[in-house]
Amino acid sequence: MNIRNPEEVVIVGGGIAGSMTAAYLKAAFRDRISVTLVDDESGRSATGHDETTLSDIPRFFGFLGLAEEDWMPACNATYKLAVRLQDWERPDRHFYLPFEEVREVDGFPLTEWWLHNGPSGRFDRDCFVAARLCDAGRGPRWPVGSPAGQGGAAVPYGYHFEAGPLARYLIGYAVERGVRYLADEVLDVRLDARGWIEHVVTKEHGEIRGDLFVDCTGNRGVLLHKALKVPYLSYQDTLPNDNMVTLRVPADMKARGIPPYTTVTARGAGWIRTVPLLSGIAAGYAYAQEYCTPEEAERALRQFAGPEAAGTEAVHSRLDLGRGLKSWQRNCVGIGALGGAESLEATGASFVHHALEQLVRHFPAADWHPKLRDSYNDSVSRMMDGAQEFQTLYYQGAARDHTQYWRDVKTRPVPEALAERIARWRVRPPGGEQAPPYHQGLPSHAYACLLLGTGAIRLRPSTALELVDGAAACQEFAAVRDTAQALVAELPAQFAYLTQMGLMGA
């Protein structure tokens, strides 16, 4: 390989990671680089793990110059205002983790004022407009022509979507802009004398040479793990689930209604995620096989999904929780599941987006300066380790202990940095300054909301609030309530909005 500015980028692996990477790099660099996408996953069936996002993804589509009417109909996409956590404290109790930022009064977040003297027993409804919108089934956007919003958004949001159709749409976008697309199988990876990747050998197209290679093959790690021998750092000691079964459940969403949130419901040996799409519900049960067999997990998921799930195909998969010790090694960068844990919110697309933003910011020059590589690795590692810590907090914070699974998860190791923060949070609740901003698209109040909702780790407000006049906080609670009630009356339900705006799937 010549020592020159990287002009030829070869992406190996399709799906969400490969398609997002091809589209993003072309949007960033246009004709100044050539991009080849070797899609060795074109024949694989998607398991649906990337069907929901955090609130960063509107920025991704904006960077590509795509409006929602361009891409949402292609993948049955819907809006997401929050994650609904069901039964994590006790049965029949839920709370929302919204994307909307928390308001502050006199330097303290409203969640802490709620701890001091909240108006009701629901911190999410008292502190966030989005919680009432979720309970009422409202979407985040005003229709075009509305005097209030001129078609804008009332609150921050992400999306739900079908992963396979979105990947195909993004590949089409990339090909239209000059990406060379090859549906082919990689048979071998050849290294040069320095141990850098020189080319990959494909079944149908022979040798594919490049300067920079991007590994989007997930936990198979065809380039980084197998060819470049990058070690894998497992999160399995702190995160208990090692298997997942998923269903795509057809449903009449007009009659059913489209909830503007992802639901994560705690179950006997793990949790069940439900994602509302225009075409139906994507449901998945993540569980620990030590406590539940695959057959038991599938039965539990079908029972949870209801009669509509009868006859649908179940997809069983292994969860490999962890990341590559490095995401950038020599002339190869890993993007996608290779570098991340399975998230309760199924936020793989947001992890990909963060990695792509960092890759563009750290794109190498002719000298391939190691500081760029090291900075990229630090950024991606912090994000993934932060996601691991946040997911660990779900289990450590859950008050439920009705099965052996839930009793045992409390005894698992806790990452040292998280353990230190939990000890501090017992005395001083988490605020934006204490929540590491590593989890792309997650609001700063996420830690506080999770602890308030799951219930096992008791929080207490700052002593200062005993000495501060609370009148302004009472006014802010009232403002949240009044704003939420007005928006519930003004904003349309999702199905009505998507129909009116022509955003329905084909």
Kindly describe this structure.
This protein is of the alpha+beta class and 506 residues long. It contains 17 helices and 22 strands. The chain has helices at residues 15-29, 57-64, 68-71, 110-117, 123-127, 129-136, 163-176, 222-227, 253-256, 294-305, 348-361, 370-397, 404-409, 416-425, 446-454, 471-490, 494-500; strands at 8-12, 34-38, 78-80, 82-86, 94-98, 104-105, 108-109, 158-160, 180-182, 186-191, 197-202, 206-209, 212-215, 232-234, 243-250, 261-267, 270-277, 280-287, 314-318, 322-324, 328-329, 332-334. Strands 5-4-16-17-18-15-19 form a 7-stranded mixed β-sheet, with helices on both faces. Strands 9-2-1-13-22-21 form a 6-stranded mixed β-sheet. A hairpin with a 7-residue loop joins strand 4 and strand 5. Helix 1 runs parallel beside helix 7, helix 1 packs parallel to helix 11 and helix 6 (129-136) runs parallel beside helix 16. The longest helix is centred in the C-terminal third of the chain and has 28 residues, at 370-397. The protein is globular, with a radius of gyration of 23 Å. The two termini are 46 Å apart.
